[in-house]
Amino acid sequence: MPRAEAKTDKTLRSKHGILTWTGFRRRLVQLLVVLLLVPPILTVIYSVVPPVSTLMLARYVQFLWVDRQWVPLEDISPNLIRSVIASEDGRFCISHGVDWGALREQVEALSEGERPRGASTITMQTAKNLFLWNDRSYIRKGMEIPLALMLDALLTKKRILEIYLNVAEWGEGIFGAEAAAQAWFGKPAKDLSSREAARLATALPNPLGRNPAKPSAGHQRLASKNVARVRSAGPIFECVLGK
Question: Where is this region: Disordered (predicted)?
Fold first, then answer.
């Protein structure tokens, strides 16, 4: 085909909606820019507006039942706040969203053929709940890190924990501390005892398999260890509860 005809054909193909290579690259760049901008924009919105998690959204789309009752951090028992920090992320108040030491240990364990144990901080778990999917993959884990750093830069520690405690899953369709306290103990989250809080906190790694109201022997042992850990933890809660 002569060059002039090829050029005309390329123009016609573009007009009929068939992207040229240049057009495809432009669209791809635009998509990447949007994907990069959405999380920080949503995070700024979430600093004042109660968010929902991707898991909650997935249930809404499937017309599945969701129980979530947003409450401010002040209406959540300090017992639960302490238990969750002690159980999930003892360095929450001093890290910047990522526990690099724990992460390095897990990478070393993986390189030695050992089974990694996670190393997710509360901020990383909040990032996963807000922006990512809910399976175990190294791709998702890698995406958690920059998102957690962003959350830590844009939100206060209190707001991060407030969001986490209001979107965390505590059973089939049960999201957040208030819904969990009502479902499992028949009381508001602000009235949880230290023992009840410990059962809820230690259910978080397996919310569909652990019943805080009727814990198994193993779950009960974890809760007892959590109570002891909270008592001996020292000043690891100051960023949210003060001295």
Answer: 204-224
